[in-house]
From TrEMBL, chains A, B:
Coiled-coil residues: none
Region Disordered, annotated ranges: 168-193
Highest classification ranks of the organism: Eukaryota, Fungi, Dikarya, Ascomycota, Pezizomycotina
Domain Amidase: 65-459
Protein name: Amidase domain-containing protein
Source organism superkingdom: Eukaryota
Originating species: Clonostachys byssicola
Transmembrane regions listed in the UniProt entry: none
InterPro entries (alphabetical): Amidase, Amidase_dom, AS_sf
GO molecular function: catalytic activity
Classification via Pfam families: Amidase
């Protein structure tokens, strides 16, 4: 384990030793055809591409890490995606990985990853976007998801900014790389911003309401929130046990597919759906009960998506959910409030003055929601999940808005999760697909969803939809 | 935080300094009437009694901790309830607590507690009954439940023996204090044994199948598994997210009631049930579909319980559950297997050779159960919870067997959880009430249960039933 002396908190700068290429390693990187790759090339590689080049010896992990650290060093003063960086540790991990024989190199060999700072990483502190844990020692072990990524060869570069305990919509200092005057969304603010800005090809976040999809839409990244329960949340800060879900940010679908294989989302051959046939697929367009909140950006993206899908030969069916789904919002609120009351009780007792009023309120509302209301919400939400699966299975996939519009101006408020919460409480997989833009030219994503456990199908659908939407310009 | 040098692993003995009473503190303890209390008196106090004496200045926390450490020192060589003890840390916590003004003293002021070793305690290692975490550093922060107990004035004495990741029925070296040739049950083996043997008045365990109730029955302790979700499992090793539930062992009902108040199980005045009237209450006796597994000990206890309740004026109604409840066992198996596959994937990738074959099997069964079967199990179990609540609400409380019989001979196998799993998957509160014995004179508990969130009612019922059953002789 890393001694605390090797931890390099952001703000203290990087040790010069980490940023000067080590003498014994090649300082150049080449693509598969022998073309020299610049730092700019390296920061735009996908995880799969980078790992392939490192596995085949075209690039060392040390070279790659240095290029990303250099990018972060140039950019993160303004973006503030990182709350903790372990530059020396990353270089030493890279060196060890460079020493592995080709056959020992994993599918994420040498790929630096950012981890939302409510998730434990061995040897790094966990601060949860709160001052309560300011003096805790580093974590003794990796959270489940971190352990899997590390076993696949990933380098854990550091911790990314989160709103307080991933449970408030009060923004921090992290900015949207696509417009520094705007929020990147929350609560997985730093993970989305770090990926959008080319600091890392992959980052891990969480969603309890809209904390993966919303920052994905605002920053123009692919964001996957898998089916609830597909990934272990052991080692992750708790907010609402029935809604907390881990997820990934990437800049492309290939990396999401690669990650899904590695972490075994929807394992088993029985879950491989028949191939999606774009020219004959049936797509449900679900505006959802939240549609009145859609601004011009989302309205425009919605119409454009319909045109693009129909041009590609897909059949678009506008589906209105049965009225009972309107009640899901109240049930979700009851479940999240009740579970948050339990989750935050210890920190409330310990240091309530350090908690945001919205978190304090969960604990202080001892009477409401009642336990009877909670049981009713559990049972009704469960029945609706079953009903949702049946509706969604009638289609190849479902498209629905991600957010009301482009990222709001200002850092105070991380934006509305109105369009995301339904899929979270339904435990459905949800994937933000970027590519379209709003009135200011900023990203407006749309969400691909489907029945529970249809993660592979929605990844395939995301690939199809992503191609139709086209690529966004890189951030700034 | 404690430096690692102050940690005293079991087996290395206690530092003499911890076992000699400190000079500046009174070495005597008195009860409320001024009677001198012996070491034997101190080890049989309830948490509430001990804390009361310490709050009122009749005894120091240091005196109390020393008497318990001395008991452990005498006994634990044979029992092996503890896998880690922090004698010095406990004494320094006790000293700090002794320095508090009376009005700062909490409801568990000075009460030493044992924590199952799958639960994080700040400054102590977490080994999970496995060799995988042998070299991890101490935890940087308390698990949620530990934080609450500590805030109430509890002294965290150490970590208690668990089966591997609380997920196997292979026993370790921990013995049943009531018969050293027998298992104390699992997986919360050490927590139950430590309470039964007078090492601590309170210990924390967990249940995913029968891991609280079974050791409670075998060791003759009160064991409360509250409604699922009533306590936060943040900082607790994961086995099955939908079934993992924290719970408490005590030697009496008063301490369980005290703990329930402190940790806010079933908060809110709306959850206070009308007082139970023993002479007119209606009690459902549910043998459950597992009744054919009941041996002579449980059969005898069952008949005796019926006689005792009827003598007290209660109306006993024998209730047979609708046939659909038989399917709950399969649904539970599907849910636990699927969730365990997700939970153990990281450790499987990391060190599968160190995992018990039954844990490896969860991860290796990639095809089975299918995700379709899992969704069906989730939805059906949820419907049954609702149906169960309706059935149980027709009665003041429900009585059902805890285990097939007395603790089995041998340490290899921790016993059958057949009678416990139904209430776990139904998320119902369950309380093992000791007092009756089997053919060898060893404890056979019965379980008080009820609808979800009726924790306060089952505590009240447990008090009534416990009085009827009478006290067991102290262990050995």
């Amino acid at each position: 384990m890393l001694a605390s002396g090797t931890l390099v908190p952001v703000g203290s700068g990087f040790p010069a030793s980490a940023l000067s290429p080590p003498r014994s390693q090649p300082t150049t990187a080449y693509d598969e055809r022998g073309k020299l790759l610049t730092d700019a090339d390296l920061t735009s590689l996908s995880a799969g591409e980078a790992s392939g080049l490192m596995r085949s010896g075209h690039m060392t992990a040390q070279r790659y890490v240095l290029s990303l650290l250099s990018r972060i060093n140039q950019r993160d003063g303004r973006i503030q995606a990182w709350v903790f960086l372990d530059a020396e540790g990353a270089m030493s991990q890279a060196k060890a990985l460079d020493g592995l024989a080709p056959e020992q190199r994993g599918p994420l060999h040498g790929v630096p990853v950012g981890i939302k700072d409510i998730i434990a990483v061995k040897g790094m502190p966990t601060r949860y976007g709160s001052t309560i844990h300011d003096h805790d020692d580093p974590a003794p072990a990796d959270a489940a998801i971190v352990s899997i990524l590390r076993s696949a060869g990933a380098i854990i570069l550091g911790k990314t900014a989160t709103t307080e305990f991933a449970a408030t919509s009060r923004g921090g200092s992290c900015r949207n790389p696509r417009d520094l005057s705007r929020t990147p969304g929350g609560s997985s603010s730093g993970s989305a911003a770090a990926v959008a800005d080319g600091h890392v090809p992959i980052a891990v976040g969480t969603q309890t309401g809209g904390s993966m999809i919303r920052p994905g839409s605002f920053t123009g990244t692919f964001a996957l929130k898998p089916t609830w329960g597909a990934l272990s949340t052991e080692g992750v800060g708790r907010f609402s046990i029935s809604c907390d879900t881990l997820g990934f940010y990437t800049r492309n679908m290939d990396d999401l597919s690669l990650l899904s294989e590695i972490v075994r989302i929807s394992p088993g051959s029985r879950n491989i759906p028949p191939p999606l046939r774009p020219s004959s697929c049936r797509v449900a367009f679900i505006r959802s009960p939240m549609w009145p909140k859609a601004g011009p950006g989302t309205q425009g993206a919605w119409e454009q998506a319909e045109r693009l899908l129909e041009q590609a030969g897909a059949t678009v069916v506008h589906v209105e959910l049965p009225k009972v789904f309107n009640r899901c919002y109240d049930w979700r609120e009851t479940i999240v409030s009740s579970e948050a009351r339990v989750a935050f009780l210890p920190r409330y007792i310990q240091a309530k003055e350090k908690l945001h009023p919205s978190i304090r309120k969960y604990v202080e509302s001892r009477e409401h929601p009642s336990s009877e209301a909670l049981c009713e919400a559990y049972d009704c939400a469960s029945q609706l999940r079953n009903q949702w699966d049946k509706i969604a299975r009638e289609f190849d996939f479902v498209l629905t808005p991600s957010v009301p519009d482009e990222a709001p101006v200002g850092l105070e408020w991380t934006g509305s999760s109105a369009f995301c919460t339904l899929w979270t409480i339904l435990h459905a997989p949800a994937l933000n697909v970027p590519g379209l833009v709003g009135e200011s030219g900023l990203p407006v994503g749309l969400t691909v969803t489907g029945p529970r456990s249809a993660d592979r199908r929605i990844l395939e659908a995301g690939r199809f939809v992503g191609k139709l939407f086209g690529d966004l310009q890189p951030a700034l």
